[in-house]
Amino acid sequence: MKWLQLRIKTITEAEDIIISTLYDIGLEGAQIEDNIPLTPLEKEQMFVDILPDAPVDDGIAYLSFFIEEKEDGKLFLAEEEMTKEEIIDKVQEELEDLKLFMNIGEGTITLGETEDIDWINNWKQYFHQFYIDDLLVIPSWEQVSAEDQDKMVLHIDPGTAFGTGMHETTQLCIRQMKKYLTPDTVLLDVGTGSGILGILALMYGAKKVVGTDLDPCAVDAVADNMKNNGIRPEDFTMMIGNIITEKEVQDKVGYECYDIVMANILADVLVPLTPVIVNQMKKGAVYITSGIIDDKEDTVVQAVEAAGLKVLEVTYQGEWVSVTARKE
Fold it and tell me: How far apart, in whole angstroms, are the C-alpha atoms of residue 173 and residue 180?
């Protein structure tokens, strides 16, 4: 299936009004490209601090609209058959009308064409089995080779929730977790994503895992990955909500009942999380954090110490940092 793409160059202040205006003529949806910085809420809902340096917001935005091209090459806008030229003229007319009472920037239109793609599954071609020390991480669509039959194997499909174990922050967490985990460990994983850390904790012998996440997609991802690794549902409890701000989530997670708390999330989120999460930790419990870019190390260490925790180790991989502390 092919799609006609109309890409409009505009300014960020005009995005909403253009989208609304073109919706009224039958263009139902837009792909937005701009350099507007992420809000604190958007950053909070991401799982690790891996954001690249973004270009400075120059106020320019591009809006792309897509119209399905039928097998016979016909195009329809609001159920009316039109040629490419007619569609462009109609969109340009709407843009010219907007220019009469507001600034929309250039308001120029560029045509393109794109093939229909299975966006949900297309990423699979880029994810293949790999090792984390002596652990083999493998997706469900690949087979364990004969020479790897004696290794511990983690079957992981991230799906629409983040987390395959390939990133340095996850590997830092795994190595620290293995140092402190015992058969009696009850572990809390804040920002669970695909469930890789909690599932591995159980595979390495933990007694019980509770996970929290902001993204509802994590529920299905964790359930699928648990099933793929033979984890019993009663051993891994998954909760959706913000443990930093929602008292109901804090109550449901429980107080002073965890031997290990793991948080592989944004450094800027670890700062407000830490003084809250100490209430979930037993005396003597270990707090393992990662997702920290190297220039945020001091910020996280200070937050950990300010919460009354004793720093045990600071470990590194590449430009990433993990801070491990204990509740005295």
Answer: 11
